[in-house]
Amino acid sequence: MTPPIAHLDLKSPNVMMRSLDLANLPLCQLIDFGTARKMTEPVTVRLVDNPVWLAPEILESRPYNEKVI
Description:
The chain is mainly β. It has one helix at 56-59; strands at residues 5-6, 15-18, 27-30, 37-38. It has one helix and four strands, in the order E-E-E-E-H. The longest helix has 4 residues, at 56-59.
């Protein structure tokens, strides 16, 4: 079984929306997997330091888990 992948840079500029038919809902696609990692062990480092996209826990140096990465 392939381990899940953590994107590690999920933000609105990395989500593309497109529609081939105006009658249907748009298709959303994730892009920019340059920081993505296989989740074979817990993620303990952060690769993106832009405070606009960081969780409050990280900004305040509080404990956090993979849900905010």
